[in-house]
Amino acid sequence: MCGIIGLVAKTPVNQMLYDGLLILQHRGQDAAGIVTMDGPRLHMHKGSGLVRDVFRTRNMRSLQGTTGIGHVRYPTAGSASSLAEAQPFYVNSPFGIVLAHNGNLTNADQLKQEMYLQDLRHINTNSDSEVLLNVFAHELQKQTRGDRVDADAVFSAVAAVHKRIRGAYAVVSMIAGHGLVAFRDPNGIRPLVLGKAETPQGTEYMLASESVTLDSLGFQPVRDVAPGEAVYITQDGQFFNRQCAENTAHTPCIFEFVYFARSDSVIDGISVHASRLYMGEFLADKIRQTMPNLDIDVVIPIPDTSRASALQLANHLGLPYREGFMKNRYIGRTFIMPGQAVRKKSVRQKLSPIAVEFKGKNVLLVDDSIVRGTTSREIVQMVREAGALKVYFASAAPPVRFPNVYGIDMPTRNELLATGRDAAAIAREIGADAVVYQDLEALEAAVHRCNFDIKTFETSCFSGKYITGDIDEAYLAKIESERNDAAKADKERDLDFNIGVAEQNLI
Ligand code: AMP
């Protein structure tokens, strides 16, 4: 998963882009980048790490201009920490184009071949986003004559891009000397919201992965970019939009609501927070119906994402809700860490139980989801060490059983705890007395209830149904073998890490 932002303003955009990326930091901590446009010139700075580490004052000074785009990167398996894959990407022809992408193309390999053999374009990284940029550049070149670019040419190019690429994509791009282009895949899998601000100098526009970026930077939300729609805003602020895809559906990724997005965002008219409250309510119903005899003393969330669900679940069961964990906010999300050993260690560094909340009690822990089970296993053990009697574990999402191919890093099927296991076996694996999962229909109902216009969701990691229709067993086997290779590299990194720690201990 990644975060993207685009701005066409009346005053320099560098600070606003930086602030916007900080707000989107939860969507990716691996790398960050900004490109600004100053007349015909593009200025780029990108690097590995958190936003605050990538940009120094001197970098910020060089990012001149009133139009710009930014990206925070979340690594997909296999390519963590590759600086070459930090975004935005740049291509010099035609005009000079930069592009930042959230999502994943499912036909990137085939496109890469086409690029090389037919379009005579070189792709220099393993990133599908570089492929996407080159497809767009190629199609734009076909649509333009001389150095003129107009909205028609841009929209025809996006329409051709939709025809060639498959998968999930929310994109912001700039054409040097011309303007900013943004578009969203025909299924609306990844989010993209449009906002504007009226200033004495005129109207400013922002596009971003999440609405909280608009709110925090003083922009009014206008609407979500529609699936398949493209927006083109010239440097001087003329706004154009057009539906560029022939067949569209609206199936937002349900995992945004489960885990990824910030609770204070509204995606496709759905308050992320409200959907999490319903998830808690529906999970309470399930517990009441299927496990009426659980002797729970207290409901405790595993911070942060699950708080809303846990609170509502406790309310609906008439049970006390207590905060039982302290979180060290200076440590990154554990999932982002390379390798299992590092990940395991960092769960304990990041979360610690407040013993008095657990001692002598039967607790129901609530988390948003269980993926590999590393976090839950460690937490159950910590809670037992803190003196809990019985430990029940509730997941606000259904069992994760399938890889995600639309931009969320999900491990291979054999690494997913729920593969081939029922709730009782999962409880044994994580050391809990019982585990309860949300049903998929209930999860969909929880999100749907926040906007009745959205009727279907992208739910593949729970259901195994891939809505782009191009994912077969061979595709899954291929990405899994790539991820296994990446896992091997992770293990080697773990070894280095452990040796490093051992050496430090010797000093
Ligand atoms: P685990 O079961 O140890 O793999 O970790 C699951 C926890 O990691 C969940 O409770 C979420 O808070 C978080 N999580 C779930 N999916 C992801 C993901 N794709 N990327 C990062 N964190 C995730």
List keywords for this structure.
metal-binding; Glutamine Phosphoribosylpyrophosphate, subunit 1, domain 1; glycosyltransferase; amidophosphoribosyltransferase activity; alpha+beta; glutamine amidotransferase; 507 residues; 16 helices; binds adenosine monophosphate
Protein model, in words:
The chain is an alpha+beta fold. It has 2 domains: 3-249, Aminohydrolase, N-terminal nucleophile (Ntn) domain (Glutamine Phosphoribosylpyrophosphate, subunit 1, domain 1), CATH 3.60.20.10; 267-328 and 347-463, Rossmann fold (3-Layer(aba) Sandwich), CATH 3.40.50.2020. It is built from 16 helices and 21 strands. The chain has helices at 14-23, 51-54, 57-62, 108-117, 128-143, 151-164, 211-216, 255-260, 272-290, 307-317, 340-350, 374-385, 423-430, 440-448, 460-463, 473-506, and strands at 3-8, 31-38, 41-48, 67-73, 89-91, 97-105, 167-175, 179-184, 193-199, 202-208, 220-224, 229-234, 239-243, 266-267, 270-271, 298-301, 325-327, 351-353, 363-367, 391-395, 434-437. The strands form 5 sheets. It has a 7-stranded antiparallel β-sheet with strand order 3-2-4-1-10-9-11. Strand 5 and strand 6 (97-105) form a beta hairpin. Helix 9 runs antiparallel to helix 14. The longest helix has 34 residues, at 473-506. It binds adenosine monophosphate.
